[in-house]
Amino acid sequence: MEITGTLRVTDRGEVGALRGIVRLEDVTLADARSRVIATGPIVLQHGEDEGRFSISVPDDIERRAQYILSARLEGEHLQTGRACVFGTVVAYPWRPHDPPQDHLIVARLWTRQSN
Fold it and tell me: What pLDDT, in 10s, does the model give residues 91-109?
């Protein structure tokens, strides 16, 4: 099974290429850390605010579990050289029997300050 969709970046500013992953996580156990089930790489070149992602889901996935899609990307500010991290800030539920999530939105989470 494949999960495909579009990842959109907000507040990108003057950040160069972004590289990262989109993850499918099992969040069934509320009092435990999520468990990463599958990942897929994503790369957005300078000036691109969206790109396609694809994740291969194992055939033996637990159909009754609760899953979310999340993403984290990193890049470097073109003028300052500071590292910029982008990620999902809301949960994107995914269920094997429902239509796939059309898109994920990621926003800037933080920028490394100078030392």
Answer: 899 998 877 667 899 999 9
